[in-house]
Amino acid sequence: MTDPGAPALLRNLASWQTGRVATLGTRFTAARMPLEARSDFAVLAALEEYGDLSQAELGRRLGLDRNNVNGIVTRLEEHGHLERRTDPVDRRRNIVAVTEAGSRHLHDLNERALAVQDELLAALDPGEREQLRALLSKVLDSHPAQPAS
Amino acid sequence: MTDPGAPALLRNLASWQTGRVATLGTRFTAARMPLEARSDFAVLAALEEYGDLSQAELGRRLGLDRNNVNGIVTRLEEHGHLERRTDPVDRRRNIVAVTEAGSRHLHDLNERALAVQDELLAALDPGEREQLRALLSKVLDSHPAQPAS
DNA sequence: GCACCAATGTTGGTCCGACCAACGTACTCC
DNA sequence: GGAGTACGTTGGTCGGACCAACATTGGTGC
């Protein structure tokens, strides 16, 4: 206990703690994949779980705003991981659909993400990891998932 | 439960969850103080708890790298919240010390930060908040607090 | 005493993610 | 048909985590 880590005032702030943990996460992530791959992962995961979505819907479900969704989708499209086609019933919307390659990419990214998880949560046993997951979920569920706009 | 919130793959990633919670924290913070005030708060809190420190030490304890510490300290100095003086025993170092005004500023920021806390963790009862605090602390303690460099 | 290496503070720059503002297009509702 | 709204897109700001390089200063081996 010679190193108290961080000042008590900060240790009591969940916003500070989560921020630091998230930073550690991005640091570990950087070792295993390009950083931007995290957004790609989120978008691909949402599409695989919910089926095809419009860009705006994607943003709402993931808490990303539409500007950023645009960039991510464009990048994924360029790499052949998904396809954009305009919704026939509402021609404002772009329906976004994962391709075969995108699906493979998603599963590859998932494996790397799980490795990051293990590294990040190395100090917690399975029960504690589940507790943490549940508590964070509870916090997230209590706030709208939407972006700031 | 018509809105599952986020895809399962993401809900299982602590790095994603903490990232989202941290984002909510910054969003709530923005409503109560300038965003940059968070770094100021961290630095002031460290100085108040540990006593005067060099900039490099500050960075190590808080997990900030020295470039950023420089900027924060400069800003706080310009506002009269702390003082820089070169360490007489090692003239490479700047000893950083909080001023009276800085101390008042710290306590003001702390109150706002606690309000953000309450808003962020509204869904958790006191016991759950303590659990969350403890789990995040455990994770943070298991990793060196130092910046990436 | 001198040469080398390490640490500190500083400057200047990159990158990513969360934002905001504005625009043209397309839909809805009345 | 017109007003208001949603969508996608472009172009920008800002904070924070990084990296590279430099001058100054300390420490160490010799």
Automatic annotation (TrEMBL), chains A, B:
Transmembrane regions: none
Tree of life domain: Bacteria
InterPro entries attached to this UniProt entry: HTH_MarR-typ, MarR/SlyA-like, Tscrpt_reg_MarR-type_CS, WH-like_DNA-bd_sf, WH_DNA-bd_sf
Keyword Iron-sulfur: no
Keywords associated with the record: DNA-binding, Transcription, Transcription regulation
Gene Ontology MF annotations: DNA binding; DNA-binding transcription factor activity
GO biological process terms, semicolon-separated: response to stress
Gene3D superfamilies xref list: Winged helix-like DNA-binding domain superfamily/Winged helix DNA-binding domain (1.10.10.10)
Domain HTH marR-type per the UniProt entry, residue ranges: 1-141
Full protein name: DNA-binding transcriptional regulator, MarR family
Protein source organism: Actinoplanes philippinensis
